[in-house]
UniProtKB/TrEMBL annotation:
It comes from the Bacteria. Residues 1-27 form the signal peptide. Keywords: Signal. This is Peptidase. The lineage of its organism: Bacteria, Bacillati, Actinomycetota, Actinomycetes, Streptosporangiales.
Length: 393
């Protein structure tokens, strides 16, 4: 079921969890940590699902648009208030200030798509970005691109991040999610003010070549390692191959840590509303008038100053908006980067898209919406940033 969120009195169609629920397992204060892939074999089976048959599931995935249609209410005065002092976390490799400037917009290497199975058991994707962390293994996106707000189960299934994804190509590998962190208020109450998530990922995985699609005869078994039948039985059908009486599983290559390969954006919180940001994402789908503006195949950007907004229907009173023509499908999870440096392709993550809006009623989306990043956002980030993941190859 698709949720339609609204500003100004239109209720959300998805049911909220009961207000009297106890804190879920893994909750520490206002932070909820939920395991994704907990073992190396589980992680490799998830990656194999996306790599199998020439990356068929990656290619077939469609944009996740569970909460993108929003009727924006612009707040002309006031707006989100910082709950502590403003703070920033520098980007990977940008710990020292850079003074270089450029007028050209060089797209960040950190952006990519997260893929998962939705409640309809079909493959979908959102936008996400690599972000600074102690072990260079952290991804930031919308909370609704991690937690299943449709069925209210814990997390979306078979979750992976693919930076630089393009039509089945995975230039830096596939990064399987290890553990997801979100705010308790989003996990339990689906509070739009807390619709963000930080996910630790294992080292990337690659194959010597494409996988099953390239296996035509036993001599092509170079992508596989011979194992015992007992080990063979622990792998999914996508990740194993039997030739006569011998058993094989996919021979994975460790692609290394996410941050080492593509870098990681910094984080900014408790910032003044009204500052300019670049929004980077993979918008797809059409405007309300039917104009098909974006394909979702390539990374796009927009630019503008943030303004305050609210959404009473989803208990969201501290949102920010920015003028953008992005359509909602695929743009969910897009990174809002403040202080973006074109030469280094780095900045400070200061928001993630959770919806788009047609504010002037002309049947064209003109605004993107994000939660306001405050000290509570930093708290969720802090719970995730020091979690080690390592290699599962």
């Amino acid at each position: 079921m698709k949720r339609t969120l609204a500003f100004g009195g239109v209720i959300a169609t998805a049911g909220l969890l009961g207000a009297g629920l106890a804190a879920p397992a893994g909750a520490a204060g206002d932070v909820v940590g939920t395991p994704l892939a907990t073992t190396a074999i589980a992680g490799k089976n998830i990656a194999a699902f996306w790599f199998a048959e020439g990356a068929a599931n990656l290619i077939a995935a469609t944009p996740y648009d569970v909460e993108t249609k929003i009727v924006a209410k612009h707040i002309s005065t006031g707006g989100p208030a910082a709950d502590s002092k403003p703070g920033v976390v520098p980007a990977i490799g940008d710990e020292k200030k850079s003074t270089a400037k450029s007028k050209n917009i060089n797209l960040p290497k950190t952006s990519g798509k997260v893929f998962f199975l939705g409640s309809d058991f079909k493959p979908h994707w959102c936008t996400a970005t690599s972000i600074q962390a102690a072990y260079k293994n952290l991804v930031a996106t919308a909370g609704s691109c991690v937690y299943d707000t449709v069925s209210n189960k814990a997390t979306l299934d078979r979750w992976v991040f693919v930076p630089g994804y393009y039509q089945g190509k995975t230039p830096w590998g596939v990064y399987v999610g290890k553990q997801a962190f979100t705010h308790y208020d989003f996990d339990v109450y689906e509070d739009g003010d807390r619709d963000y998530a930080f996910v630790t990922v294992y080292n990337g995985l690659k194959l010597p070549h494409g996988g099953f699609a390239d296996i035509k005869k036993p001599s092509d078994i170079g992508s596989f390692a011979e194992v015992t039948e007992a080990v063979y039985n622990t792998y999914s059908p996508w990740a194993r191959w039997k030739v006569g009486s011998k058993f094989y599983v996919w021979k994975w290559i460790d692609a290394g840590r996410l941050g080492d390969n593509v870098g990681g954006q910094g984080l900014a919180y408790n910032q003044k509303v009204g500052k300019p940001v670049f929004v980077f994402g993979y918008p797809s789908g059409s405007h309300p008038d039917g104009n098909y503006a974006y394909s979702g195949k390539t990374l796009k950007w927009s630019y503008g100053k943030t303004f305050a907004a609210s959404a009473a229907a989803i208990k969201a009173e501290e949102l920010i908006g920015v003028k953008s023509s992005f359509t909602g499908e695929g743009a969910l999870g897009s990174s809002w980067l403040a202080g973006y440096k074109n030469t280094r392709r780095l900045g400070y993550l200061n928001g993630v898209t959770i919806g788009v809006s047609d504010t002037d009623g002309n049947n064209r989306y003109d605004t993107s919406i994000s939660p306001y990043f405050d000290g509570e956002t930093y708290g969720v980030y802090s719970a995730a940033k020091n979690l080690w993941s390592g290699s599962i190859a």
